[in-house]
Backbone:
């Protein structure tokens, strides 16, 4: 059973002249328990809008969003934003504990749980300093700890590492994978980086330009840890890049992709790694 299910989701906004701007059209997507799925698409295509709908921050104009068989709600998803969104007047420890207090947990128990999640992201020794005293990467780790402490069944991540330098981004990507492998939560991760998607995801969902629709879904057949310098990854990166510039019939393109991937990849699962959709 899918942990997250989107059915025929549509969303439009209105411009300053009253014109309708269609952002999302007929989005059908499922994510299973323990699955790491990356949403990949060009900037401005509607990835963050889709994530905000899943988070319950926006309502779709049409369609349904279900998490664990129930309508989406704040108690069923946790979200990490591009910027950490930490409270500058609270210590690192209290930033992580804040959501637990809101849910009614006592201060002592909330801080104990917050400290445990700071330990998981290797920041326990920074518990009593303030966000402005941390680097950008450390602030994002605090934001991840805060979200995990709430123990939602599903995690949403909106380009959380996009503003970081390459070294810090790589370190946090590895830390995120380690935490995910421990918790096995479902994750929907927005990115515009093909390299990041290949490194992190079980499955990559490629969105078109606005209005966003699902162009293709790619199931990655590679075990972890992954070395993106190996020839199969280089090939798959080029193939994913081509999806941004080509509009082909979904089934025809998925077949040609599979044939080329088969010749470049040593081991593939029995199921085809690339599932096309006609739109």
Residues:
């Amino acid at each position: 059973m899918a942990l997250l299910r989107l059915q025929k989701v549509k969303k439009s906004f209105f411009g300053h002249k009253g014109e309708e701007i269609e952002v999302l059209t007929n989005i059908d997507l499922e994510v299973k328990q323990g699955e790491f799925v990356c949403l990949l698409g060009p900037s401005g295509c509607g990835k963050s809008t889709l994530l905000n709908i899943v988070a319950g921050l926006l309502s779709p104009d049409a369609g349904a969003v279900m998490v664990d068989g129930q309508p989406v709600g704040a108690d069923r998803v946790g979200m990490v934003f591009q910027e950490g969104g930490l409270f500058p007047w609270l210590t690192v420890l209290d930033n992580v504990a804040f959501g637990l207090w809101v849910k009614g947990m006592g201060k002592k128990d909330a801080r104990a749980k917050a400290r445990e999640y700071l330990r998981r992201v290797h920041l326990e020794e920074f518990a009593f300093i303030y966000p402005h005293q941390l680097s950008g990467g450390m602030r994002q780790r605090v934001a991840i700890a805060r979200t995990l402490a709430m123990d939602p069944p599903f995690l949403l991540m909106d380009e959380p590492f996009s503003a970081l330098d390459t070294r810090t981004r790589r370190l946090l990507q590895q830390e995120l994978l380690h935490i995910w492998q421990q918790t096995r939560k479902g994750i929907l991760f927005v990115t515009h980086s093909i390299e990041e998607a290949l490194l992190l995801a079980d499955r990559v969902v490629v969105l078109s330009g606005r209005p966003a629709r699902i162009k293709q879904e790619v199931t990655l057949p590679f075990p972890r840890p992954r070395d993106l310098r190996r020839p199969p990854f280089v090939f798959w990166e080029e193939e994913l890049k081509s999806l941004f510039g080509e509009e082909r019939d979904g089934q025809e393109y998925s077949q040609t992709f599979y044939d080329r991937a088969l010749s470049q990849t040593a081991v593939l699962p029995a199921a085809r790694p690339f599932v096309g959709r006609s739109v």
